[in-house]
C-alpha cells in the first residue's frame, strides 16, 4: 500500500518575492525557525493509493491563450472537461522535460472557481508525473509574487520551481457569473512565449484524452504543511506555504522597517490603501498594521473575496470609490484633512494606482476632471522607471513635511510604495 504523510511546513526559504521587486538584486536567504530551534513537524499517516486515469474528451472551440492566458466566463470554465483540456494541452506543449519530475506553482488571486481549479490541476500534475506542487496558503499569490517564487524560492530539499499555473483574470470582475482565467509562466518567471502558447492552442484543437489522478484526495490548502503521497511514478508532494510570512521576512531583510515605522508614526502623514478585495489584501494587514504599526483604518477592502466584494478590481478613479471619497474633491471642505497618499491594487496585484489628494481648489466641487488627481500608475512591467520614484515622492512631500522630516524620504517612502504595490516600478 502507499502512504500519505501530512507534515507541518518547515522550509528554508530564499527571498521569495525579491526578484519581482528588484530583478538584479539578490537578498540573503531567509530562514524560518521556531523559538529554541527548527519548527517541529506533525505527522498524520493515511494509507492512500492513487492511480492514473485516461479520460476521453473532445476539443472546445476558442481555447487560444494570449500573453494574459485564457480568459472566459466562469460558466465556460465549469463545463465538464473544459479546464482539464487546457491544462493537459499545456503539459503536452511543454514536453516531458518540463513536466516529469519537476516542481510547479499553482496559485492566483483567489477569485471564484480558483479553489476547485487548484484541486483539479494538482490531480492532473500528479498524473502527468510532476514531482511536487507549491501552493500559496488559501491558493493566494499575486502575479508578481508567483514569478518571484519560480525564480527564487528554494525548497527544503533544494528543489526550485520550473513554472506555474496562475489563476487570474487580472482586473476583471469575479464571481459565479463573472470572469476566470488561467495562464502559464515559464522557468524564468515570465509568461509563456508565443511558441508555447501556439502549441497549447494547437493541442486544444486535437485533444482526445487527458490524464488525472484517481483516488488522490483534495488537499487542504488552508493549512501550511506538506502533504506527501506515493503513486505509480513514485513520491508526489503538495507544499502549502505561508506567503505572507515569507514576504514579511524578505521585506525585513531588504528594507529599513524602522524608518518606515517612523514615517507612519508621524502626525503629519496618513495614508489609505485599497486592495479592492483582491490578493494584495493577503499581505496588507500583516505588513502595515502588525509590522509597521499603521492604523487598521488605513486599510480598505483588504479581505480577499472570491467575488471581490461585488466590485470591479480595477484600480482607477471609477472603481476605487472609497479612496477617492477620502482624497477627492467630493469631500466636504469642513471634513478633516485627507490622507497624504492613497493607493489601490487590482485583483492579482500587478496593476496599481497611487495618488495624493485633490488640490484644495477643487474640494467641494463635483464632479471634477480626472486631471485633478496627479495619479501614478504602476504595473509589473520589466521596463525601468522613467523617473526616480523616490525623487517624485520627495518632491511631492516637500510641502507636507519640514525638510528635516524628509531625510531619506527617497528611501523610506519609495520603499513604502514598493511594499504597497508588490511589483516592479514603472512610472
Mean pLDDT: 75
Low-confidence segments: 1-46, 360-427
Tell me the overall shape.
globular
Structural class: alpha/beta
- Sheet-strand content, in percent, reads 15-25%
- Cα-based radius of gyration, to the nearest Å: 23 Å
Please provide the count of β strands: 18
Tell me the strand order in the biggest sheet: 4-1-12-13-8-7-9-10-6
Largest sheet: 9 strands, mixed
**Helix percent band:** 25-40%
Helix and strand pattern: EEHEEEEHHEHEHEEHEEEHHEHEHEEEHH
The N- to C-terminal Cα distance equals 57 Å
Oligomer: single chain
Number of helices: 12
Structure overview:
With 427 residues, the chain is of the alpha/beta class. Helix content is 27%, strand content 21%. It has 12 helices and 18 strands. It has helices spanning 18-21, 74-77, 82-94, 114-127, 143-152, 194-204, 243-254, 257-265, 281-291, 321-327, 389-397, 409-421, and strands at 3-8, 12-14, 29-31, 43-47, 51-56, 70-73, 103-108, 132-136, 163-167, 179-185, 209-214, 225-231, 234-241, 271-274, 299-300, 341-345, 351-355, 376-379. It has a 9-stranded mixed beta sheet, sandwiched between helices. Helix 3 (82-94) crosses helix 6. Residues 1-46 and 360-427 have low confidence and may be disordered.
Amino acid at each position: 500500500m502507499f502512504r500519505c504523510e501530512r507534515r507541518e511546513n518547515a522550509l528554508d526559504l530564499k527571498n521569495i518575492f525579491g526578484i519581482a521587486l528588484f530583478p538584479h538584486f539578490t537578498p540573503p536567504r531567509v530562514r524560518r525557525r521556531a523559538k529554541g530551534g527548527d519548527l517541529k513537524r506533525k505527522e498524520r499517516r493515511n494509507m492512500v493509493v492513487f492511480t492514473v486515469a485516461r479520460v476521453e474528451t473532445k476539443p472546445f472551440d476558442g481555447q487560444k491563450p494570449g500573453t494574459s492566458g485564457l480568459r472566459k466566463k466562469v460558466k465556460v470554465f465549469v463545463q465538464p472537461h473544459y479546464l482539464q483540456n487546457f491544462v493537459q494541452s499545456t503539459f503536452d506543449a511543454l514536453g516531458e522535460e518540463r513536466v516529469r519530475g519537476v516542481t510547479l506553482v499553482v496559485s492566483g488571486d483567489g477569485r471564484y472557481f480558483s479553489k476547485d481549479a487548484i484541486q483539479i490541476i494538482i490531480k492532473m500534475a500528479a498524473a502527468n508525473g510532476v514531482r511536487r506542487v507549491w501552493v500559496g496558503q488559501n491558493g493566494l499569490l499575486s502575479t508578481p509574487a508567483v514569478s518571484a517564487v519560480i525564480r527564487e524560492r528554494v525548497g527544503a530539499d533544494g528543489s526550485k520551481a520550473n513554472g506555474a499555473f496562475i489563476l487570474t483574470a487580472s482586473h476583471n470582475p469575479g464571481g459565479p457569473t463573472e470572469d476566470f482565467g488561467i495562464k502559464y509562466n515559464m522557468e524564468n518567471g515570465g509568461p509563456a512565449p508565443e511558441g508555447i502558447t501556439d502549441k497549447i492552442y494547437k493541442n486544444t484543437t486535437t485533444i482526445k484524452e487527458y490524464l488525472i489522478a484517481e483516488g488522490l484526495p483534495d488537499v487542504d490548502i488552508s493549512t501550511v504543511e506538506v502533504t506527501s503521497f506515493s503513486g505509480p511514478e513514485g513520491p508526489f508532494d503538495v507544499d502549502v506555504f505561508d506567503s505572507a510570512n515569507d514576504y514579511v521576512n524578505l521585506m525585513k531583510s531588504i528594507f529599513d522597517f524602522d524608518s518606515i515605522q517612523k514615517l507612519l508614526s508621524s502626525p503629519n502623514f496618513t495614508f489609505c490603501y485599497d486592495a479592492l478585495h483582491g490578493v494584495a489584501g493577503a499581505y496588507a494587514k500583516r505588513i502595515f498594521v502588525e509590522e509597521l504599526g499603521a492604523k487598521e483604518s488605513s486599510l480598505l477592502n483588504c479581505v480577499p473575496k472570491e467575488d471581490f466584494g461585488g466590485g470591479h478590481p480595477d484600480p482607477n478613479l471609477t472603481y476605487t470609490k472609497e479612496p477617492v471619497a477620502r482624497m477627492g474633491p467630493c469631500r466636504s471642505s469642513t471634513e478633516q484633512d485627507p490622507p497624504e497618499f492613497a493607493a489601490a491594487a487590482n485583483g492579482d496585484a500587478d496593476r496599481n494606482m497611487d495618488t495624493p489628494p485633490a488640490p484644495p481648489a477643487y474640494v467641494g466641487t463635483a464632479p471634477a476632471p480626472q486631471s485633478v488627481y496627479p495619479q501614478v500608475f504602476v504595473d509589473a512591467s520589466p521596463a525601468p522607471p522613467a523617473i526616480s520614484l523616490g525623487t517624485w515622492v520627495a518632491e511631492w512631500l516637500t510641502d507636507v513635511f519640514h525638510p528635516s522630516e524628509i531625510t531619506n524620504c527617497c528611501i523610506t517612502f519609495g520603499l513604502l510604495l514598493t511594499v504597497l504595490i508588490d511589483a516592479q516600478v514603472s512610472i
